[in-house]
Amino acid sequence: MSVSWLHPHFTAAGAVVGVAAAAYVIAVAPLLGRWKYQRLARARSHDAGALTRFYRLSLIIGWGWVVVVLGVPALSPLVKPGDLGLAWPSGSGAGVAIGATVALLVLFGLTAIAIRRYVASGRPLPGQGRFAALVPETSAERRLAGAVTVTAGISEELLCRGLLIATGVGVFRLPVLVAAALAVLLFGLAHLYQGATGVLGTAIVGAVLTALYLASGSLLLPILVHIALDARSLLLARVPPALPAPAAPAPAADP
């Protein structure tokens, strides 16, 4: 797999951003994500707005990282947009990557039909327990969930593949494949809230997305697959049963 297109040259300011992003993914994202999810899971039984607030915070964080990543070339002019995956698919592996992406999207579409029939019977998706608190219940929540899937697909690919791999190569002087492997590991750990099985499954997905990126030189393909996968998992999941309303206070005794 040729990755001759990846040759970022960071200035000191750009390197600080790249290292800070790596530190965030290593030390903050896993623990913050688990804390946020556990708090959401506790709150959903008695707080009707908990999921909406969670989604909105996720949108703010996600688009904040998009701004950070897109600002790196301004801080480091020798870091070209293509070094961050901001390019159209090209190169000798692009055809295979595009074909694999189309095949995955078709597969997701076909399995979506089966999933809809499966959840219509009232059964939860296998593995849904890892993220059950994130499943939207109302129409407003589903609209926000759709926005979150798009945001996550864009922001996580820019951060966990585009910037992290470029930082590994351009700042830490790692071989591309080593930097890519570390980025896959960190991408999995960022989903610590889903437990060990979720971390492993996410890392496997991350490896596939990374292969599409390195083969094509573009984040467009992994972004499309990422969005489609998240949408299938979240938007087609069975709507959870109505959450119990908080108990009404007992009436005051007559004097």
Overview of the molecule:
With 255 residues, this protein is mainly α. The chain has one domain (12-235). It has helices spanning 12-43, 50-75, 94-120, 139-170, 176-189, 195-216, 220-235. Helix 5 packs antiparallel against helix 6. The chain is globular. The N and C termini lie far apart (83 Å).
Q: Which features characterize this protein?
A:
255 residues; mainly alpha
Short summary:
The termini are far apart. This protein has 7 helices and no strands. The relative contact order is 0.18.
List the helices and strands and how they pair.
Elements: H1 12-43, H2 50-75, H3 94-120, H4 139-170, H5 176-189, H6 195-216, H7 220-235
Helix pairs in contact: 1-2, 1-4, 2-4, 3-6, 3-7, 4-5, 4-7, 5-6, 6-7
Mean pLDDT score = 89
Task: Tell me the distance between the termini.
Answer: 83 Å
Structural class: mainly alpha
Most strands sheet: none
Proportion of beta-strand residues? under 5%
Gyration radius, in Å: 20 Å
DSSP strand tally: 0
Share of residues in helices? 55-70%
Uncertain residue segments: 240-255
